[in-house]
Amino acid sequence: MIEFKGLEKTFEGKHGTVHALKDINLKVDKGEIYGVVGFSGAGKSTLIRCVNYLEQPTDGNVIVDGSDLTRISTKEIRNIKKKIGMVFQHFNLLNSKTVYANVAMPLILENAPKAKIRERVTELLDFVGLADKEKMYPDQLSGGQKQRIGIARALATRPSILLCDEATSALDPQTTDSILKLLQKINEEYNITILLITHEMSVVREICNRVAVMEDGNVIEEGTVFEIFSTPQTETGRNFVNTVMHTEIPKYVTDMIAADDNVYRINFVDHTAARPFLSQISKKFDVEVNVLFGNITELQGVPFGNLIVTFQGAGQEISGALSYLGDNKIVYSEVNAYAG
Ligand SMILES: Nc1ncnc2c1ncn2[C@@H]1O[C@H](COP(=O)(O)OP(=O)(O)OP(=O)(O)O)[C@@H](O)[C@H]1O
User: pTM of the entire structure?
Assistant: First the structure.
């Protein structure tokens, strides 16, 4: 659906060459919600702008719906761009035009018949829950309402891909939540592939199926949201996960740990959260289990998190308990509590 192959982008600036994208290889499947997360300057905007050719790659390929944008004519690119909608952080609405005219704009530019425009705009305003606002102007709307209008406009030409550039970054948490739910509804009801960029891991946690972490123009890790949240492979990936999962152990907990304690982090993923395995361990082995700290949340409807526990007992019993965890596919790791 969207594929980046060896994608490179450099900018020539006042202070020399900026290498904004370095050998990016990613595939976004049809119908998924794919997140790209990274700090400011990582290259996220440049990457997303290559999909609708607002930026032209310096090297490599961008393949959209089977067509390599770097190898087709300007006219063909224009046709493909019609199948791509874009939602912006600051909405990019025309303040001098009504809500109706803003949503109608892409259809007017296509010279669509008036009756068709009326039908589509009415349908879209209804879909985003703002049917009663068509005669209002953007300045009369809240941020969340403006973004709903921005989304309705992006959907006007029935795109198969929706690009979201920090679509919720200017919104408060509650409004963010409602916009994310709307994006999810769009994905589910219209089967539209969504590629979103964000610096907020909570957005990724909420709606993405897969995620790529970008740093300094590179994709440094990529995987399902579960993979990245449960086993981030890079320091930056871990830091992003920590912004919503708080996997670091608080100092008051490390203060409670004795030097000879056996401390473990047990990850809950999926079905393991529901199992009463800690009480089973106490029953099966001569091990005393103490839960020091827990952080359990929900990841896309599934319990997810980790527990910091100490096991006290003879070495052999502890080994047995750990093997039992492993046999039951429960992910754990030994924690050096003093290192945090
Ligand atoms: N038109 C341009 N000319 C020169 N340099 C650019 C241009 N656009 C982006 N860059 C540089 O490319 C790098 C990546 O920028 P980009 O905007 O893609 O990052 P980002 O991850 O989206 O960050 P942000 O969230 O702050 O927008 C940065 O160093 C930026 O300064």
Answer: 0.86
Among the candidates 244, 268, 291, a domain finishes at 244
Nearest residue (by CA) to ligand 1, atom 3, is 11
**What is 24-81 written as a DSSP string?**
EEEEE-TT-EEEEEE-TTSSHHHHHHHHTTSS--SEEEEEETTEEGGGS-HHHHHHHH
Element (H, E) at 16: strand 16-28
How far apart are the CA of 19 and the centre of ligand 1, in A?
A: 9
What are the pLDDT tens digits along the chain (340 aa)? 999 999 999 999 888 999 999 999 999 999 999 999 999 999 999 999 999 999 999 999 999 999 999 999 999 999 999 999 999 999 999 999 999 999 999 999 999 999 999 999 999 999 999 999 999 999 999 999 999 999 999 999 999 999 999 999 999 999 999 999 999 999 999 999 999 999 999 999 999 999 999 999 999 999 999 889 878 899 999 999 988 877 778 888 888 777 778 899 888 766 555 567 888 898 999 999 988 888 877 777 777 778 889 999 999 999 999 999 888 878 888 887 555 4
Ligand 1 centroid – CA 181 distance (Å): 28
- Taking the centre of ligand 1 as the mean of its atom positions, its distance from the CA of residue 333, in whole angstroms, is 38
Same domain (yes/no): 225, 87: yes
> 219 and 292 in one domain?
no
Question: Of the residues 18, 40, 197, 214, which should be mutated to test ligand 1's pocket, given the most ligand atoms within 8 Å of the CB?
Answer: 18
My answer on whether 260 and 237 are in the same domain is no
